Amino acid sequence: MLRWPCVTEGPTDEPEEWLIFRTGPSEMGVHPTRSATGEVWGADGQHQLTFMCDDLHSTMAELAGRGARFEGEPRDLGFGLGVALTVPGAGTVLLHEPTHPVAVDL
């Protein structure tokens, strides 16, 4: 569906396919789970995989043309515009266009 280069053979004899992507350029963000005043923003120990793009609307249109499905409409997340991309058999992954400085070119 995504047509991104990946390995699709599972590590076992199971019929499900694994999507194994080469990473890079990529970023890793370590975000606080609470503010300095104690306001809770998220659970400790949580993590999230996201796909970052330069133009969310054009990326959504391209992926939709390949059969991708999205949950809801794009929304302002505070750090960028994002939408949940449905990955068959794996749930959803955030697809977002960041408005924050990115580290990918460092």
Question: What does this entry look like structurally?
Answer:
The protein is mainly β and 106 residues long. It has a domain at 50-98: 2,3-Dihydroxybiphenyl 1,2-Dioxygenase, domain 1. The chain is 9% helix and 25% strand. The protein has a four-stranded mixed sheet, covered by helices on one side. The mean pLDDT is 83.
- Percent of residues in helical segments? under 10%
Care to count the β-strands?
4
Give unreliable regions as ranges: none
For this structure, what is the CATH class of the domain at 50-98?
Answer: Alpha Beta
CATH architecture of the domain at 50-98: Roll
Q: Count up the helices.
A: 1
CATH fold-level assignment of the domain at 50-98: 2,3-Dihydroxybiphenyl 1,2-Dioxygenase, domain 1
Largest sheet: 4 strands, mixed
User: DSSP strand (E) fraction?
Assistant: 25-35%
Rough shape? globular
Cα end-to-end separation: 31 Å
| Oligomeric form | single chain
How is the largest sheet built, in terms of strand order? Answer: 1-4-3-2
| Overall pLDDT score | 83
- Helix/strand-derived category reads mainly beta
- Taking Cα atoms only, what radius of gyration do you get, to the nearest Å? 16 Å
CATH superfamily of the domain at 50-98: 2,3-Dihydroxybiphenyl 1,2-Dioxygenase, domain 1
List the helices and strands in order.
Answer: EHEEE
